[in-house]
């Protein structure tokens, strides 16, 4: 019984980790393609600003005032959520913007929901910079 | 009540209990609750409270900097992202932390913590 639970936990962790790495890779290389990871029901709170739906969310992300950036992930923590098959992921890391000397530290929370096709989409996304 | 106000009220209650009566956190968790504390995974109210009451400091004070919340789905759950400072008595500098809660409603009309993840934010 414990072995099964351990295996399930490992699976959740692998999926959460893979999703997050994919998410930031897209963000850093092809920001507009993040649209594939959000649905109409998705919500983003970005530094306190609330947005809903893939169109508004992608408009916000695409309009952020920098061209190139790179996310460095420090920690990824995952837990299964109460939603069947859902996963909560908590990330901390730093965001380097080209032409900025110092990277920005951030925390971000994702709530991932499975799709019928066997992948995940972001239902909830909350992003905060961590000021020193 | 407005969800943002609810989340803020819950979070304030949580930290006030943590800072004054840590063992009292037991009724904010259930058997199914999960805590990941600085990477360590713990499940169930009893184990979670054992972890929190055995943290290596007597007195502490949480100060909240930001609280963001979103509804998590049709079951009435709420996701909350908190950032703030944790001052331990006797320590000169406060520790910065971020914390994620996933709150689920109880039949009695309040909330309990289903998912909980805590991380210190190092400079």
Detailed description of the structure:
The complex is a heterodimer of chains A (132) and B (123). By secondary structure, chain A is of the alpha+beta class. Helix content of chain A is 28%, strand content 44%. Chain A contains two helices and six strands. Chain A has helices spanning 2-29, 54-62; strands at residues 38-46, 49-52, 69-80, 87-97, 104-114, 120-130. Chain A has a six-stranded mixed sheet, with helices on one face. In chain A, a hairpin with a 2-residue loop joins strand 1 and strand 2 (49-52). The radius of gyration of chain A is 15 Å and the shape is globular. The model of chain A has no long low-confidence stretch (mean pLDDT 94). Chain B has 123 residues and is an alpha+beta fold. Chain B is built from two helices and six strands; from the N terminus they run H-E-E-H-E-E-E-E. Chain B has helices at residues 3-20, 45-53, and strands at 29-37, 40-43, 60-71, 78-88, 95-105, 111-120. In chain B, strands 2-1-6-5-4-3 form a six-stranded mixed sheet, covered by helices on one side. In chain B, a hairpin with a 2-residue loop joins strand 1 and strand 2 (40-43). The longest helix of chain B is centred in the N-terminal third of the chain and has 18 residues, at 3-20. The model of chain B has no long low-confidence stretch (mean pLDDT 95). At the A-B interface, strand 3, strand 4, strand 5 and strand 6 of A face strand 3, strand 4, strand 5 and strand 6 of B.
Briefly, what is this?
The complex is a heterodimer of chains A (about 130) and B (about 120). Chain A is of the alpha+beta class and about 130 residues long. Chain A has helices at about 1-30, 55-60; strands at about 40-45, 50, 70-80, 85-95, 105-115, 120-130.
